[in-house]
C-alpha cells in the first residue's frame, strides 16, 4: 500500500476527474510524486466506505475496466454518466482526462 502522502495525492487527483470522463491508473500515477499504477489500483480497492470519490472513472491502460469484484458496478456507473464502451469493452480515447 502507498504511503499516506501518496494516497492523499492519488485521492486528490481522482476527485478531480470530471463526470463522463475517465483516466488510467498510469496517468494518475504520473501526476503523483512516485506512485505506480499498481499503487493507484490498490488505493482504489481500499477506499473506505462512504468516501464519495469517483473511483469508477479510473480504468486500465487498454481503456477498459479491469476485471475485479466491482467491475460490473463500475461499468454501470460509467454508463450512467454517458460513457460508452465499444464491442471490445473499451472507452473512446477522446474521453481521457486530462
Automatic annotation (TrEMBL):
Q: Tell me the keywords, alphabetical order.
A: DNA damage, Methyltransferase, Transferase
Top-level lineage group = Bacteria
Protein's name in the database? Methylated-DNA-protein-cysteine methyltransferase related protein
Pfam families, alphabetized: DNA_binding_1
Q: What InterPro entries would the database entry show?
A: ATL_DNA_repair (IPR052520), MethylDNA_cys_MeTrfase_DNA-bd (IPR014048), MethylDNA_cys_MeTrfase_DNAb (IPR036217), WH-like_DNA-bd_sf (IPR036388)
- GO MF annotations for this entry? methyltransferase activity
Indicate the segments forming the Methylated-DNA-[protein]-cysteine S-methyltransferase DNA binding domain, all copies: 8-83
Q: Where does this protein come from, organism-wise?
A: Modicisalibacter muralis
Q: What's a single GO BP term from this record?
A: DNA repair
Amino acid at each position: 500500500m502507498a504511503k499516506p502522502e501518496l494516497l492523499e495525492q492519488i485521492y486528490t487527483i481522482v476527485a478531480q476527474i470530471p463526470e463522463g470522463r475517465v483516466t488510467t491508473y498510469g496517468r494518475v500515477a504520473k501526476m503523483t510524486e512516485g506512485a505506480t499504477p499498481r499503487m493507484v489500483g490498490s488505493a482504489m480497492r481500499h477506499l473506505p466506505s462512504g468516501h464519495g470519490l469517483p473511483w469508477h472513472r479510473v480504468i486500465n491502460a487498454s481503456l477498459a475496466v479491469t476485471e475485479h469484484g466491482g467491475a460490473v458496478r463500475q461499468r454501470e456507473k460509467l454508463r450512467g454518466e454517458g460513457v460508452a464502451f465499444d464491442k471490445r469493452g473499451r472507452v473512446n480515447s477522446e474521453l481521457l482526462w486530462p
